[in-house]
Amino acid sequence: MAAAIVETRYGKVEGLTQEGMQVWKGIPYARPPLGSLRLRAPQPPQAWSGVREAKEFSAIAAQPVNAMGGFLGRNATPPPSGEDCLYLNIWSPAADGQKRPVLVWIHGGAFIAGSGADPWYDGASFARNGDVVVVTFNYRLGMPGFLYLDELGGKDYGYSANCGLLDQIAALEWVCDNIEQFGGDPANVTLAGESAGAMSIGILLAMPRARGLFQRAILESGAAHNIQTPEEATSQARAFLEQLGLRENQLAELENLPVDKILEAQQLSIRNMRGAPVIDGHLVPGKPLDQIASGSAAQVPLLIGTNRDEARLFTFMSGRQPTVNQQEQEHLFGSRALEVFATYLQARDDHSEANAWMDIVTDRVFRIPALRLAEKQLPHAPAIWMYRFDWPSPAFGGRLGACHALEIPFVWHSLHIELSQLFIEESPAASPIADTMHAVWTAFIRDGNPQTDALPDWPRYQLDERLTMLFNEQQQLAYDPQGAERQYWDDIL
Hints:
Layout: E1 2-7, E2 12-18, E3 21-28, E4 51-53, E5 60-61, E6 81-82, E7 87-92, E8 100-106, H1 124-130, E9 133-137, H2 142-146, H3 150-153, H4 163-178, E10 184-194, H5 196-204, E11 216-220, H6 230-244, H7 259-269, H8 288-293, E12 302-307, H9 312-318, H10 326-333, H11 337-346, H12 353-377, E13 384-389, H13 408-411, H14 418-424, H15 430-447, E14 467-471, E15 476-479, H16 483-486
Parallel strand pairs: 2-4, 5-6, 8-9, 8-10, 10-11, 11-12, 12-13, 13-14
Antiparallel strand pairs: 1-2, 2-3, 3-7, 7-9, 14-15
Helix pairs in contact: 6-7, 10-11
Domain Carboxylesterase type B: 4-487
Protein name: Carboxylic ester hydrolase
EC number: 3.1.1.-
């Protein structure tokens, strides 16, 4: 059944009615970044006449096939990808003029993969259960999204750094201008994301151009540390150009290369998310944490959290057994390395040295950056809530624990999705946890407070107690969880 025809600033769109919710897919929020628009800031979409069908997801952003390592060996055919990807999707109870809370989601994928059309992010659950309007979208990834040429090409070329971030801002601006026609309130927008999506939010909180485009934020397993310096980004750009066989005076050739060649060179030059956003001095004026500490995101409430065993997903996906990296341990902690490791090992019930090392990696990449963000925002925010997701997956012999991304189907109430079942294995404990977490996220989206009747009293985060909600089969409020380990990072990160 067709959904209501809605008139946006650029033309009318007609979607679908699915399970009682109205859905619009593949609405352009910017012009296709092709040819001369490749590597440049997104431009407003061209207006159209008549009614545009919005019933199918667009192509996802250009990305290598199996960019995330085949994600646990899935053999599913990947969706079509390409550069014409700047589209968004909307789920709403009704396009009836009511001003409902709005959730805008930024997908993860290490800045090189993912899309707003992933089945995990089906917005029908929030629309139905929370009377919320949900928006997901694609943004440019990898080198099309984050190639930095300021130091190589200069301003004469007119290329834009951080195109992926500019896409995210363009999507938010589109929401502010149009979401009321879909039943949403442009003055009540919650920006949420996981992994690279949350890392993006950590940077958006520091960006003057993003100020006022959202009123609160949820950051799952990502904060404000994943940013390149201009020097790092320039080195990355040189490696990328070298793979393409281009000299610095041949940058114009980048506009005409087939995207497959760009992706091939990208795979050979990007390592460990180093294709991430960059401090360009303009859009991102300085280190995000420094900007946040100075009040760049004043009055923005935050819900921030990580998963207990984040790092175990990545070693599992690599096919390697986790081993202790003593050289990295000494690099991080110097003469205290043995003392630190002993503390982490003692904190584990399983006495596993490999898992103790995974805890250190989890803290370095995810938990400590989340705490740092909360610490910098505390003087400027009316409220911050901290959580940790602890439920261990029973899949694969329990090797994953409460790994990276495991909380997503609980938050979105999408346990029935095939990929979710790969993690959940129809565990009877999962559904009650999903009911609780979905309600908690809905409460925060609606009015900026995650407290629900299903939880113990959840005070705001403060440095004297560091109260943190632990989501598991029984929800528990903890005082400074992993506090002994946390203190070793005081002068690090």
